[in-house]
């Protein structure tokens, strides 16, 4: 199991035990975390799983994937240098304890 | 006044989204979701893509069981709705525990589509790819080397063909129209994908209808016989509109909706693949088969039911298809009689007499997203606008 904490726009925190190998988006949806939509199911088609990786974790989650930048252009909330599509962050043991912040809107 | 009991018939992605959005919008009344299939609601798009390769059914589930409990949604799987009694405001259903009736204040029809059965002899020998159960069967069959025939060169048939060929099977695609995906994309884009599939070693039989299927393969219109160990039927779908028609609702290429996504009965809405609605751009009646239409319809209906309002549905359609290393993305919707202009490699504009209606791209998410914004804008866009974006 890999622990992930989602911090909602209003500051509310939800911590879940996710399955290794799932994406940050899949873990959120499977655990009923509000604030991540993931409409296309991780096909990098919709930009509704936008998250901001916590500063302390930015290095370990790595850079954006090819195509991710382009899709983020269509995200509903502000894009920062820590913006990622959470469907493209795969949960590994090294990411145990990961913290991501959620935008105000996904649609 | 907002209704006291909303019943959603159909637990695909659109039906489920309606319940999610209703609760999100603050609807606190009774909420029931009825689905014909067993298990939890799941995503269909990966069934012809990632699922065939990875086989992870749990990755398809849209929400866990706990969602229905925490949001107080009564979810009835393996349950078929057999009739709507509009006078009494009740539906009749048949589930694992027998038959029953359920009252509603508002009904949402999200009944989807089923596979079209064209007049081809011996279709009982062909497989379908629509449900998770279908995909499981196909996945098992893909476990040993095969010769596979695919009837239908649309999105589903071609996505399946790309996976099967990628796994090393011998694949032939049979399409009655002279080009691939003819209903959905430009001739240039059809050509791109024909080259892609031929390059992978898939045989394409274009402009050739299948006339019969047997245990050993498919007979084509020209009398030739194509040997195959199994055959996939992927020749399009028909909307599940019988329930609506039997209840006396207007049906026209699906359940007929007004611009507010209501049927001819103001107590009944419909959404997604089963519904035809006026294109916000030109008022032409359209029916779309996509996750986007299903979920955007669902959100619109949920907002109307919980907050009221006289707005008309206006979301821009978009579509995608993954075939081998080519990701096709379409922003907007091009109906029949639309012309095409190639902007640059992998970018095609679709135009009618009022300007730009759709943009097709391959492996170019940047232009796709910019096109979505351009086409969603309040003012009609033209070719020049797209050329500027693509520059």
Give a quick set of tags describing it.
heterodimer; A: 107 residues; alpha+beta; Ubiquitin-like (UB roll); five-stranded mixed sheet; 5 strands; B: 391 residues; alpha/beta; FAD/NAD(P)-binding domain; five-stranded parallel sheet; 10 helices; 26% helix
Structure description:
The complex is a heterodimer of chains A (about 110) and B (about 400). Helix content of chain A is about 15%, strand content about 20%. Chain A is an alpha+beta fold and about 110 residues long. The longest helix of chain A is centred in the first third of the chain and has 7 residues. Chain A has a single domain, classed as Roll (Ubiquitin-like (UB roll)), CATH 3.10.20.30. The model of chain A has no long low-confidence stretch (mean pLDDT about 95). Chain B is built from 10 helices and 26 strands. In chain B, strands 3-2-1-7-19 form a 5-stranded parallel β-sheet, with helices on one face. Chain B is globular, with a radius of gyration of 22 Å. The termini of chain B are far apart. At the A-B interface, helix 1 and helix 3 of A face helix 3, helix 8 and helix 9 of B.
Summarize the structure.
The complex is a heterodimer of chains A (107) and B (391). Chain A is α+β, with helices and mostly antiparallel strands. Chain A has helices at residues 24-30, 58-61, 68-72, and strands at 2-7, 13-18, 50-53, 83-85, 98-101.
Task: Give the arrangement of secondary structure elements.
The complex is a heterodimer of chains A (107) and B (391).
Chain A: E1 2-7, E2 13-18, H1 24-30, E3 50-53, H2 58-61, H3 68-72, E4 83-85, E5 98-101
Parallel strand pairs in A: 1-5
Antiparallel strand pairs in A: 1-2, 3-4, 3-5
Chain B: E1 5-9, H1 13-24, E2 30-34, H2 50-54, H3 65-70, E3 74-76, E4 80-85, E5 90-95, E6 98-103, E7 106-109, E8 113-115, E9 126-127, H4 132-141, E10 147-151, H5 155-166, E11 170-175, H6 187-200, E12 203-206, E13 210-214, E14 217-220, E15 225-227, E16 230-233, E17 237-239, H7 242-246, E18 255-256, E19 268-270, E20 275-278, E21 285-286, H8 291-307, E22 318-323, E23 326-332, E24 339-344, E25 347-352, E26 355-362, H9 365-376, H10 383-390
Parallel strand pairs in B: 1-2, 1-7, 2-3, 7-19, 9-16, 10-11, 10-16, 11-12, 18-20
Antiparallel strand pairs in B: 4-5, 5-6, 8-17, 13-14, 14-15, 20-21, 22-23, 23-26, 24-25, 25-26
Helix pairs in contact in B: 1-8, 9-10
């Amino acid at each position: 199991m890999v622990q992930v904490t989602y911090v909602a726009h209003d500051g509310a925190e939800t911590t879940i035990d996710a399955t290794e190998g799932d994406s940050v988006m899949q873990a959120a949806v499977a655990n009923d975390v509000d604030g991540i939509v993931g409409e296309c199911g991780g096909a990098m088609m919709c930009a509704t799983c936008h998250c901001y990786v916590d500063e302390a974790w930015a290095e370990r989650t790595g850079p954006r994937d090819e195509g991710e930048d382009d899709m983020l252009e269509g995200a509903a909330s502000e894009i920062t240098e820590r913006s990622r599509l959470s469907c493209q962050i795969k949960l590994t043991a090294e990411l145990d304890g990961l913290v991501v912040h959620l935008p105000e809107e996904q649609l | 006044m907002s209704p006291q009991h909303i019943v959603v018939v159909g637990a695909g992605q659109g039906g489920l989204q309606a319940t999610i959005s209703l609760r999100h919008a603050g609807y606190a009344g009774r909420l029931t979701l009825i689905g014909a299939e067993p298990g939890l609601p799941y995503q269909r798009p990966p069934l012809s893509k990632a699922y065939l390769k990875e086989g992870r059914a749990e990755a398809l589930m849209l929400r866990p069981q706990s969602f229905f409990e925490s949001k107080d949604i009564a979810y009835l799987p393996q349950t078929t709705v057999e009739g709507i009694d509009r006078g009494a405001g009740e539906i009749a259903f048949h589930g694992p525990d027998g038959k029953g009736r359920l009252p509603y204040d508002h009904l949402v029809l999200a009944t989807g589509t089923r596979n079209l059965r064209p007049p081809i002899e011996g279709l009982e020998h062909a497989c379908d790819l629509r449900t998770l159960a279908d995909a499981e069967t196909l996945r098992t069959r893909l476990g040993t080397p095969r010769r596979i025939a695919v009837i239908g060169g649309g999105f589903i048939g071609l996505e399946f063909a790309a996976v099967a060929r990628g796994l090393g099977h011998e694949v032939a695609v049979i399409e009655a129209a002279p080009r691939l995906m003819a209903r959905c994309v430009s001739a240039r884009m059809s050509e791109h994908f024909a080259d892609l599939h031929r390059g992978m070693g898939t045989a394409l039989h274009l402009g050739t209808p299948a006339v019969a299927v047997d245990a050993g393969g498919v007979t084509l219109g020209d009398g030739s016989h194509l040997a195959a160990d199994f055959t996939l039927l992927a020749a399009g779908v028909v909307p599940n509109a019988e329930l609506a028609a039997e209840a006396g609702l207007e049906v026209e290429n699906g359940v007929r909706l007004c611009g507010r996504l209501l049927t001819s009965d103001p107590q009944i809405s419909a959404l997604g693949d089963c519904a035809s609605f006026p294109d916000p751009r030109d008022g032409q009646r359209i029916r779309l088969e996509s996750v986007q239409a299903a979920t955007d319809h669902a959100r619109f209906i949920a907002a109307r039911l919980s907050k009221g309002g006289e707005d008309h549905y206006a979301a821009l359609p978009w579509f995608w298809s993954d075939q081998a290393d080519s990701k096709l993305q379409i922003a907007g919707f091009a109906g029949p009689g639309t012309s095409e202009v190639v902007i640059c490699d992998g970018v095609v504009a679709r135009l009618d007499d009022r300007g730009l209606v759709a943009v097709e791209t391959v492996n170019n998410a940047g232009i796709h997203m910019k096109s979505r914004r351009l086409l969603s804008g309040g003012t009609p866009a033209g070719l020049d606008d797209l050329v500027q974006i693509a520059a």
